[in-house]
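The instructor's notes for this session suggest beginning with a concrete chain rather than abstract definitions. Hand out the sequence below and ask the class to guess, before any prediction is shown, which regions might be ordered.
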Amino acid sequence: MARKIPEKWQSSVKAIKAVQVAFDMDEKIQLSIRKQALDAGLSPSDQIRDILGLPINKRPKRPRLTVSLAPSDYQLLAEKYQLQAEDQLEIKKKLMDDLITHINLVNKDKNE
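After discussion, reveal the predicted structure:
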């Protein structure tokens, strides 16, 4: 007996059926595609779709950067920030502060 998908998940059905395809190609090609994507304001995935003539969303709904953190990463970061590893929201805030500080320093060095 098939279960009905809840209404709030209906928009995700297409994404669930999508298959991710990975490309093993020369680093220079990968770097070139990534640079084109950055210049175009696209994700590398959307840049590949554009090159292949497939439809893309011109602007992501929530543009963001991501990083995968293992429990051991949270432990290291908790020690760095003098927090508990379970306090993931506060760790995230500290990470964002570090990233912003890093970019501000890099941009400052470039302008000097």
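Then share the key points. The chain is about 55% helix and 0% strand. The mean pLDDT is 86.
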